[in-house]
Amino acid sequence: MEEKSPTLPRSSTMVERLHRLFQAFSGDDRVLIVISADPDAIASAMALKRLLWRRVTSVTVARTNVIRRTDNLALIHYLKMPIVHIHHVNLHDFSKKVVVDGQPRHFGELESLGFDVIIDHHPASPHRARFADIRPAYGATATMMTEYLRAAKIVPSVRLATALYYAIKTDTDNFVRQGQIEDVRAFRFLFPLKNKSMIHRFENAEISRGALKYFQAALGRLKTKRDTAFVFLGVVDNPDTLVILADFFMKISNIHRAITVGLYENRLVAIFRTLGIRRNAGREAIAAFGEFGSAGGHRSMARAEVPLANLPEKLVEKEGALERFLTRRLLAPPPKKEPASGSGNGKSA
Ligand SMILES: [Mn+2]
Fold it and tell me: What separation in Å is there between the alpha carbon of 329 and the centre of ligand 1?
């Protein structure tokens, strides 16, 4: 299937881009690809590594973040592609530095390293790379990388195809968020090449075994009132668990509002979820915690983080006082409002 392009046929444009990309490297290059590891960045780095196979001396992929999300860990485990932390490489060992699914600006101090190649889909920021391909309209960098592979006439391996497919799926939120015809086209190309059961596994790898103990605790301590589910979990070892639990409680029939609260590193973390119809999670978070710390969000999702030191002493020191305080504050009845009035005045100080 060919589609029209105002200037060159799409295929030759991509072939041209591919040649310019290859021209940025030479055979004795030792290449460092820097990523902030998420599925799109990981898949894009893997695709670039494949493109550079036998064209450079070595390719090392380094991440700047700590990977905690269990789905990302499952993806990396499946891909068997080594990804080292940036602190564990000697930056002077490399003759070329590349960033994919991000831009030098996003990497703080590393920006001063000087990057030779940038491939990304975020809004463009100033740079001095010798080769930059930045396409903000694209839903995923993985879409761009799929186009490069196709231009190079490389059929991706099952692992690479699976990674690219999953990257497009997550970065476009299954085409709900952003995505254009190129994303759909790449997705369709990868569709028969991917490993379906691995995709299923990544998508269902959200809960770590470590988080299970919090499910048990949360079910035991759950309070429901009208349409609200509320739980105070005490100390948690990862605030993501609170998010997973809040989303989980929203699946209970007739629960339209979920609030999970826990303590993490001397802070109180509260996660709000609502259907966003009668209630406004962002406003509720501000009303409940704005006076003590940071709080805010959208109509349906919000978050508050409060240093414990900002809370009244009697709440923190007396056993059970904090939970009683939270229950009183958060299980209050919803504000009365005529249904026809003021649609979507979602902002509030
Ligand atoms: Mn991306």
Answer: 39
CA 106 to ligand 1 centroid distance, Å: 13
For CATH 3.10.310.40, list the domain ranges present in the chain.
209-330
Q: What is the mean pLDDT of residues 256-276?
A: 94
Q: How high does pLDDT run on average in the chain?
A: 88
Overall residue count recorded for the chain in this entry: 349
Split at pLDDT 50, 70, 90, the class of 277 is confident
CA of 317 to the centre of ligand 1 (A): 44
**In the beta sheet, which residues pair with residue 297?**
302
d(CA 259, CA 274): 9
Q: In the 8-state DSSP scheme, what is residue 172? A: T
Residues of CATH 3.90.1640.10 domain(s) within the chain? Answer: 10-203
| Distance of CA 288 from the midpoint of ligand 1 (Å) | 34
**CATH of the domain spanning 209-330:** 3.10.310.40
pTM confidence score: 0.70
Distance 81 CA to ligand 1 centre (A): 19
Among residues 291, 287, 285, 322, the alpha carbon closest in space to that of 304 is found at 285
CATH of the domain spanning 10-203 = 3.90.1640.10
298 CA to middle of ligand 1, Å? 22
Rounded to the nearest angstrom, the distance between the alpha carbon of 189 and the centre of ligand 1 is: 19
At 118, is the secondary structure helix, strand, or coil?
A: strand
